Amino acid sequence: MEKRLRSSLQSSAEEFLSVATKLPLKSSKAAIKSSVSTLIKPSSDLISTLPLSLRESISRSISKFKSHSDSTSPLTPPAKRVRRSARNKRDDGDENGGQSTAEKLQVYTYVLHLCVFHPKNVFTVSDLLPAAQELHDNLILFESDSSLLSDIANLCEEWWKVGLLGKETLISQSLPVILSRSLTLKKKVDVHRVYSLREAFSLFDFEDESIEDLKHLLIRCMISPLYLKTEDGRKFIAFLFGLSMQLIKELCAMIKSQIPFGRKSMLEAYGEILFRGWKTVESERKDEIENGFLQELVEGAICASSPDLAASIRRILWGFVQQRTTEGVEKLIYRLAEPVVFRSLQVANSNVRQNALHLLLDLFPLENPDATKEAKDTLLEKQFFLLEKLLSDECPDVRVVAVEGICRTLHLFWEVVPSPTITKMITRIFDHMIYDACTEVRLSTVNGVIYLLGNPQSHEVLKVLLPKLGNLIVDSASVVRAAVADLLLLLNDIRNFHFHKVVPLDVLISALVDDQPVIARKITRLLVPSYFPSKVTEEEACKRVITLMKRSPTAGARFCEFVALEGASLRSLMRLFKIFIGLTVSSAKLSEEQIEGLLVASSHLCTVLAKDASLLAALKEELSAKNLKALFAVASSTRAQSSLCNIISLASPDAAGNLFEDCMGLIKKCSGLLDDTERQAEVRHAHKMIVSSGWFDEMFEDLVGFLQRAAHGCHAKFGIDLGKESTKSTTRTKKGSSTKISSKSKHGKGKKPSATGENRLLEDYALAVGFAWQIKDLLLSDSTRKAILGSRNLKRAYSALKVISEASILHSLQYEDLNTYPVSAYTALTLHMALHNAKAGVSGDPTQDNPSDLTLNHLLNCAYNLFKAENGNKKSGKCPSGSSPHTSKTPTDSSTRTKECRTGTSLTKHININAVKGLTSILKFIVDATAMDLVPRYQERCLTFTTENLRFVITNLNEISTAESQLFQDDLKDLIICLKSSFTYGAKLINVVLKAGEVSSLQQGAYSLANELFNLLVAVEEHLGYACAARFTTVVEPWLPDLALALRSNCLLEQKADEGSTLDSSENPTLHVPSWFHKLATIELCELSTGSAEETEHPNDFSAFKGLVETMSKLLGANAEILDAVGVTFLTGSLSALRSKNLDTVLGVLHFVCRKLIRAQDWKELKLMLASVEKVYCELEREADKEDISEDDRQKLNGAKTLLEPVWTSFIYEQGRHSMEEE
User: Fold this and answer.
1) Which end of the chain has a smaller Cβ tally under 10 Å, C or N?
2) Within 750-814, where are the H helices?
3) pLDDT tens for residues 492-540?
């Protein structure tokens, strides 16, 4: 290859170029370079002939390239870049298989480059310049070939850098190529290339219109992350400010447009770019940046509509603030800010004051470098005066900024601020701000002091004032208490500060006992160097912990809970554990509180130590059967026994011995367990010990025995059938339970007098609720769940819970003490039984009901009996009595725990909430069982019940409003939770049912249920107010798509019934007019009215309901098919309202459909709705033409017709006319 090149080069320039273009450039580059560099000497003829031949060859190739481009793509560029292989096929090669025209030009460019930069400079630049200009001037032709484009641009770039003759003529086309490449390839090296060519941009006339494309590329650099990230990129953009006044304006406009969305790094880069650009320009251009843009930024930082926007603007201004030592910057900042900042600090708008304060703190100290010392001092005094004044601002947000800002200012400028000013401002903070009513202000005060401590000059003053902060360790806000704990930890690391002089040790220990775990851990970290230091012997460290335990057993136990997390060694903790156990066993001179504290602390330590397998043997040795028995003997409190159970289950379950009765005594004390999380944790510890000791069956048998005793009481009181399982084992259970109770009586504080009658029933019921909670809790764990499902007492437990649940539901209206938790346990047990049978492959008679079927039928019967009892009460005005003949025997003695049965509307104040809770539990079971496909035969019945349940709830809401009774806050909270749950379960049931398939009965049920859910939303907002409805809507929004599909199902049903008519099934007018349609219509009419009296009839504007309807309308707009079907549902409702003479509803619903539901939607796609519109319009015409209607009714009918007129004219009447003409 090289030999051929050398031979051709000695022959002639044309021959050399011909041979070179026939060789692959990639493989022949080295040979070409060698030939040109070594063979061409100063005396060679090629010095004159090669440049001329190069120019002629380049001209011929470009002409050929142009003609080929014109013939193949005369109008538009190719949609995709043509591959090199395609270009090779496209161009005509020579007879010897020569390369494409583009590749020939690439070879010529390479040879030209070698000639220009020949090592011996044998060629004259003026001879080579025409060839280079030929390539440069036609760069735009080679856009489809990136390699050729790059080679030519590189040649022009190097020509410019070296400063060769005619470099200005090789810039106009090559520079945009290089700039565009840097923006598309996004490589740092390309950005550096652009920066190195920056001076070439000054050759362009930026006022000329032809420069627009290049200007767009330059402005793109302003938003390119690569340019903003790299040093060369930022310098290049700053250089652009010196090119043109118009370009400055466009660059500033681009920065302004990015401020609301820019990240912190981007905004800071803009600040640096602006500063550099400002430094490089002079006269008018500098004035444009200062007065045209920076002044606007200062005003925008003050008047910004949001704190985030103001902060973004300040980040850009910070580019100047941090360069304030540069000549002219301080004066510029003063000139821009002084006229507006001080004035804005005293305006009425708190947002403006806050923004101005932020800006002043960023610019502090604001001063005029040209002013006298007296003027500077006066200006500084003014700033301190305003800062102090803003500490008393009426807006808490301003006070927050003022406190933190003053502390930051003092931290930075302590040495230059006059001492009287420091004393005055700090005293104001410590005397007033720590008592501020706003939590954020108190928090900012503590954080500001923490920041101020970073300046050692402040320590002498703060040492005197810090004790005033001590009371914040018991602040009502946890964030403030946590900040104070952080402050104390910081003081602990500063010499000459003592945290206990800020917060007394007794207060600190009290906070350790009562505060949240996060804060308690920080306090523990603070106390570790004093009470469990690592620098003393283990014996000494343990003595200090014992001292803390004696001082406050509860605090000592809490200290031990977190001490391991703060770096204490396991060896020292093991030593401490042994000492605790030894002290507790001896129990000499220890109070009950100290024993409890030692056992709780030992439990915390054991939790950590048991995780290390190497320490288990030592733990078991310490927890011998003898020691455990002694420990239980001294553990008199429930918490102490629970902690001991936890220790045994973790470290030594085999040594539990005869402690079953002691643990069962702990488990049986479960009255009031639902609302006591601490007691729940204690019961779980007892469960854990019993399970680890292998006593689960005995424990579960005892639990079931107690449940059966409560079930027997419900049978005796209310006449509820016990069932076979309960009847068989009642006698045995009662005998066994009494034995267990008597054996544990020693752990009580005294025997209670025997209870009889109703008191005995309610006491047993309260215990049964606790046992029900325990069974449900045990079902959560895999191991205990398997044990329950495999227990021989499972059916007895199921039967007992069934009876108690029936009593809880049927008599929830009569007895406040009845709780719905047994229903939750009953349904949870049923679901697990059904799933267990399914997994185990238990297949019984398919005609027989499984547990889920039995429970479902039982609960639905209970619920319907409750509905009957409530309805009967409303008709008779008497107290509801359920379905039992024994219910009327309610005692009236005021000493009993039950409330007297109340009649009338006062009943809605408390009692119906219990009923709603019970029904919500049933609904949850229905949805769960349906979703798991455990009740496939009862889906229709489930839908019907859910609909009736919602009607019952809505009726109760109506009664609350009618009775004008005020719900207690706790009752209202419970009611809102139940309503949210009921809605969620109803919507989920719709989702499950619609996924099951298009069964007509199920679709009808889903449609009815969806309407009832909308009715519930309206009832909540109408009777409980907007605040409750707003919280309720957060639950509703995710289910709107399912509700829309359910509304659509009504249209699908009518299509199946009569394919030709979507509206003929509405013979019963009320069938298709849900009550929420009436409310929707009322809202629409109120919006149409112009202040008439009708507005006063509906003071509630139903904002939450309107918002949800609007959201649903937007969702429907995304799917024309579903919109079509749902629209038919609304039109069906309007026609039914028309037939029932409810013209307000007709007008309101049609207004909603035509103005909000469809909006810009193309009616041509809505075939079903067009058919419905035709029928509605015809019906409206018939009604409007009747003579026996009032003028008001006629006006409403004409208004409805006007709404449908455009649709009727454009899509129905015209189409019908055209079809008739075609016929």
Assistant:
1) C
2) 757-778, 782-789, 794-810
3) 999 889 999 999 999 999 999 999 999 999 999 999 999 999 889 999 9
| DSSP labels, 512-540 | HHHS-HHHHHHHHHHHHHHHS-SSS-HHH
Angle at Cα 1101 formed by Cα 1096 and Cα 1104, nearest 5°?
165
Residue 882, phi-psi category: left (phi > 0), alpha (psi -120 to 50), beta (remainder): left
User: Which residue is it, tokens 């350790």?
Assistant: 512
The two three-digit tokens of residue 533, written as one number: 């230091």
CB-count burial class (<10 Å; 0-12, 13-18, 19+) for 1111: middle
Give the residue from 145, 60, 71, 69 showing the smallest Cα distance to 106: 145
**Contact assessment for residue 165 and residue 89, using Cβ atoms and an 8 Å cutoff:** no
Among the listed residues 723, 736, 729, the one whose alpha carbon sits nearest the alpha carbon of residue 804: 723
Determine contact, residues 438/399, Cβ cutoff 8 Å: yes
- Which amino acid appears at position 48 of this protein? S
Q: Exposure string (b/e) for 411-425, b if CB count within 10 Å is 16 or more?
A: beebeebeeebbeeb
Considering only 183-187, 597-601, 1049-1053, which range has the smallest mean pLDDT?
1049-1053
Residues 1147-1177 as b/e (b if ≥16 CB within 10 A, e otherwise) read bbbbbbbbebbbeebebeebebbbbbbbbbb
* Predicted local distance difference test score (pLDDT) of residue 948: 92
Which residues fall within 8 angstroms of residue 589, CB to CB, at 6 or more apart? none
d(CA 972, CA 671): 25
Task: Tell me whether residue 1010 is exposed, middle or buried, using C-beta atoms within 10 angstroms of its C-beta: 0 to 12, 13 to 18, 19 or more.
Answer: buried
Is the distance from CB of 205 to CB of 246 less than 8 angstroms? no
Q: Which residues of 316-331 are buried (b: 16+ CB within 10 A; e: fewer)?
A: bbbbbbebbeeeebbe
Tokens encoding 1065 = 């099934």
List pLDDT tens digits, range 918-937. 889 999 999 999 888 888 88
Number of H helices, E strands in the chain: 58, 0
What lies within 8 Å, CB to CB, of 203 at 6+ separation is 168, 171, 172
Rounded Cα distance, 201 and 184, in Å? 20
Helix, strand, coil percentages (3-state) for the chain, rounded to 5, are 75, 0, 25
Scan for tokens 């503590």, then name that residue. 446
773 by DSSP, 3-state: which?
helix
Cβ-based neighbours of 1096, under 8 Å, separated by 6 or more: none
pLDDT band at 275 (very low <50, low <70, confident <90, very high): very high
Cβ within 8 Å of residue 179, ≥6 positions away: 194, 214, 217, 218, 221
Give me the residue label for tokens 């928090």: 443
Tell me the C-alpha distance between 797 and 818, whole Å.
19
Residue type for 1202, please? Answer: T
Q: In whole angstroms, give the CA distance from residue 599 to residue 583.
A: 10
Over 60: is that where the pLDDT of 181 sits? yes
Residue 6, SS3? helix
Amino acid at 882: G
The CA-based diameter of the chain, rounded to the nearest angstrom, is: 133
Alpha-carbon gap, residue 293 to 105, rounded angstroms: 48
Query: What is the length of the chain?
Result: 1223
Q: Say whether pLDDT at 89 is over 50.
A: no
CA–CA separation, 917 and 970 (whole Å): 13
CA-wise closest residue to 1130 among 1099, 1153, 1105, 1158:
1153
Residue 30 CB: number of other CB atoms within 10 A? 10
- Tell me if 326 sits within 8 A of 376, measured CB to CB: no
Supply 758's token pair.
Answer: 């109703």
- Whole-model pTM: value is 0.66
pLDDT for 873 beyond 70: no
Report which DSSP code applies to 93: P
